[in-house]
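Title: Prediction job returns without error message
Component: structure pipeline
Severity: low
Priority: P3
Assignee: unassigned

Description:
Job completed but the reporter wants confirmation the result is attached to the right record. Sequence as submitted:
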Amino acid sequence: MNRNILLALSLLLLASPTLPVRAQSTEATGFTNPIVPADYPDPDVIRVGTTYYMVSTTMYHFPGATILKSQDMVNWEYCAQPLKALLDDDRYNLRNGENGYAKGMWASTMKYHDGKFYLLVNGNDERAWLLSAEDPEGEWTVKRLGRNYYDPGMLFDGGKVYVACGYNHITMCELDADFNFLREKEVVVRERTGLEGCHLYKIGDYYYIYATYGGYPSGQVAFRSRDIFGPYEEKVLVEKHYGRNINTIHQGALLQDVKGNWWTVMQEDLGALGRFPNLLPVEWADGWPVVAGGVRPPVSFVDKVPRPASEGKSVNCLPTSDSFKGKHLGMQWQWNHNPVDDAWSLRERKGWLRLRTAGIAEQLHQARGMLTQRIFADPERPSTGTIRLDVSALQEGDRAGICIFQDPYAMLCVERTADGFELLWRQDQVRNAGRDFTPSEQRKPLSLKKGIIYLRAAIKFGENKARFLYSLDGKTWEPFGGETQQTFNLTIFVGSRFGLFCQATKKNGGYADFDWFSTEN
């Protein structure tokens, strides 16, 4: 890219910092979707008393099964990350060339029954997991079940437990009180439609399977029957749209607000940054839910939607920046695959995050110990992440820096060589980023005072190009490297993320210290 263009882009990035996620006004009569402008896909939402809880898919990121809470269904804050790991094997530990990209914790179902919260997690490894807790912010009990339930929808009914699950062939399963499988029956078959994402409810005299015709574009559908095992009749609620009006709002939950009004929370596919949860009103006609008045759902970031009834106000925000001065990592952070507990610390250097090398990896996507967080979209300005980094303790062959992780991914880091430090920009791919992509890199010798450098990563919603800048004093910034076009790639199956890393390419023993991470200027 022309250097003048890069300089102009750097000025834009400096002048347009990404702010922390602010609460939408509690006094307004309406709100704008998405309710969370970041990758919280496959949402299931329930209300317990006056508090709403939302769980989303977290794949191979741990701790996982992120739960948010809210008092108004519009503004959300972190509640829990109860899934500490799935399996202790080569895939989830990034060993022996294996990885769990596009695997892990898929769409789950959340229910509250007899004073306890339940999460049924589709483990994507032939066996499901059941998590339970009386207090969602306390300790969770974890139990591995005897079989898997693809995209499950769970229902407690008359002392029994039922799970609707499957892909194209939807099966109704009955479980005992200890969640052991008893029997099953295939209740809906829709070949080659992408039917999945089941949520199961009993409303009035009917059992409802609330599901999606997934893919691109997408649609939402309901099936109903007076008998849990069918037969079921069908009604399309949100149709697939093609051409200029492609619909990608689908797969989510039905629930009532504190005044008994009905709502649905569904994901919307919005490009490289992922799938964002949308909140839409629901009415009922002839025993069927009607989403958003039966017309095409409102446009995200533009249309106003009437606000749900609530008895409390949510004014907290979802944090993004971190000074690393606490005793624990904030819940915005998740490790890329299983964490390596002895390879990071918030205590060894007070007020800094220390990342140690953990294994040898030529490519970043196989490096253990990368700390990641979702990128929050802003339709008007780039989303940026900036770090202040001390690389003094790197060994030869070590790399430390920041990345925007997708497939393809791009990174800006410092590498220690036999001759000193080098600034390294690199773009690479996990599996198959596309025909037009070529891995490449750029390097530049560095002279660092006391080992300190500032690195910035940026990506603009809708444009989806990862760019980077660096500074030696935190004031004067220079762009470095190319721009990497990203899309939502099924090879990793999540939205683009900021990642902090310390990677060894020759031997272990080195480390890097991160003073802070900021999404502000």
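Comment from assignee: result matches the submitted record. Residues 1-20 have pLDDT under 50 and may be disordered.
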